[in-house]
């Protein structure tokens, strides 16, 4: 049976921290589905189309990694796609506390699904999508925190709307 993991997040935007978690987990699973979770009533900074396009671009040569969109519970998505694992990254103790509660509730409700955590690389600990959005919003250069090979002009255009 295929070992499928879902890596859920808002990825607004997808950073080098996210990229590293996916690349490190790639040898552990047959397939990783990066699930961009969205809420039709909540406004994001980058459009869902752009986020999806960027992630597809980053992993275009890695056939076992795909991107899908989902509105609703991650566990429901896991069932839809036949995934038994949820992949999450941990940076700090506050990440841990937040993730622990969600993973334990998920485990109670859906014991067949395991949440797997990877600790961030030390150099990625401060890489945070909220801070990166702020840099971009104020016209700064966030390229060192974003995966290579993306068109940086597209990030600037988003700021202007
Ligand atoms: P969410 O809104 O669900 O927290 P994010 O897009 O912020 O979604 O993050 C998705 C996942 O990636 C989470 O598990 C988060 O902890 C992890 N993550 C975010 N930034 C990093 C990083 N720099 N290093 C490792 N993991 C990270």
Q: What does this protein look like?
A:
- By secondary structure, this protein is an alpha/beta fold.
- The protein is built from 6 helices and 5 strands; from the N terminus they run E-H-E-H-E-H-E-H-E-H-H.
- The chain has helices at residues 16-25, 48-58, 74-81, 93-109, 129-137, 152-160, and strands spanning 4-9, 31-37, 65-70, 85-90, 114-119.
- The protein has a 5-stranded parallel beta sheet with strand order 3-2-1-4-5, sandwiched between helices.
- Strand 2, helix 2 and strand 3 form a beta-alpha-beta unit.
- The longest helix has 17 residues, at 93-109.
- Adenosine-5'-diphosphate binds at residues 9-11, 15, 17-18, 21, 88-89, 91, 95, 120, 124, 127, 129.
> What is the overall number of helices?
6
Radius of gyration (CA) equals: 16 Å
In this entry the ligands are: adenosine-5'-diphosphate
Give the structural class. Answer: alpha/beta
Distance between the termini: 45 Å
**What's the helix-strand series?**
EHEHEHEHEHH
Biggest β-sheet description? 5 strands, parallel
* Major beta sheet, strand line-up: 3-2-1-4-5
Provide the β-strand percentage band.
15-25%
Write down the overall mean pLDDT: 95
**Uncertain residue ranges:** none
């Amino acid at each position: 049976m295929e070992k499928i993991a879902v890596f859920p997040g808002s990825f607004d935007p997808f950073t080098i921290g996210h990229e590293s978690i996916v690349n490190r987990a790639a040898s552990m699973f047959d397939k990783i589905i990066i699930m961009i979770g969205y809420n039709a009533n909540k406004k994001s900074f980058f459009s869902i189309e752009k986020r999806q396009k960027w992630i597809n671009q980053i992993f275009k040569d890695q056939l076992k990694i795909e991107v899908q969109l989902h509105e609703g519970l991650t566990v429901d998505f896991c069932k839809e796609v036949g995934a038994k694992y949820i992949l999450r990254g941990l940076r700090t103790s506050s990440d841990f506390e937040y993730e622990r509660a969600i993973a334990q509730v998920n485990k109670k409700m859906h014991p067949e699904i395991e949440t797997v955590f990877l600790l961030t690389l030390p150099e990625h600990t401060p890489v945070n999508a909220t801070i990166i959005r702020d840099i971009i919003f104020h016209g700064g250069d966030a390229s060192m925190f974003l995966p290579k090979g993306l068109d940086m002009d597209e990030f600037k255009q988003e700021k202007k709307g």
